[in-house]
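Input sequence (135 aa), recorded before submission:
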Amino acid sequence: MTLLEDLIRAIELWLRIAKEQVPLVDPTLDPVLLVPGIAGSILEAVDEEGNKERVWVRILAAEHEFREKLWSKFDASTGKTVSVNEKTRITVPEDRYGLYAIDTLDPDLATVVVHPEKEGRQHVEVRAVGVSHGG
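Predicted structure, token format:
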């Protein structure tokens, strides 16, 4: 009987919350940037024409691109960060259902993996630094 009572209480609580106006963001809280994955995730700057450029993680010209495109401020009313550069917006790549942004540290860096000889031939594999994909 307690399971049924808990279910009824949960539904009643849900109905009360649904009728009340719940603020989207608590303006007293400071924003936190979570960067999952192995040493980071990928963030892109998109300009007004829709051109994309990776700004994080970036090896070459990282400091300039960070200051120019990634610097942002938090808007407590919407719960989003707004780029200081009004001509760009920051996005996360959604390839592979959003996993691409966290499984490869820097897709432009390539490593060469030389496998032991298989069936009399030598196999060379070039892949991006990060998690190798099954296939």
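Checked by second reader. Residues 122-135 have pLDDT under 50 and may be disordered.
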